[in-house]
Amino acid sequence: VQLVESGGGTVHVGDSLRLSCTCTGMSGFVFTQQRVGWDRRAPGKEREMVATNVIGSETWYVGSVKGRFTLSRDDVRNTLYLQMNNLTSEDTALYFCSLGTSWGQGTQVTVSA
After folding, report:
1. 57 vs 71: CA distance, rounded Å
2. By CB neighbour count within 10 A (0-12 exposed, 13-18 middle, 19+ buried), where does 54 fall?
3. CB–CB of 80/23 below 8 Å?
4. pLDDT in tens, 15-60
5. Residue 8: C-alpha distances to residues 34, 52, 86, 89, 107 (Å)
């Protein structure tokens, strides 16, 4: 299983970004059965879970991103997304996607004032 994130970059406060995570090396059925999610690690801070979902269940979000971030999944393309709106400097971090126990290498998001 291989996960590759993309879509990170440097933006300004209040901007939006959409992260993508392409998952390969598994069948579409396996993709739909796995817990998926996004974590992040900010400079000098512990890694934290941002959002997670099991198909058929409600998505969980960490409090600081509720109402601003949306996790979605395309079960045809085996791809995860994280739509991030109204970004703040506190969202600056390396973002990782997960599928079951597999993780990607991360994509950097930097939010400047």
Report:
1. 12
2. middle
3. yes
4. 999 999 999 988 778 888 889 999 999 999 999 999 999 988 999 9
5. 24, 19, 15, 14, 5
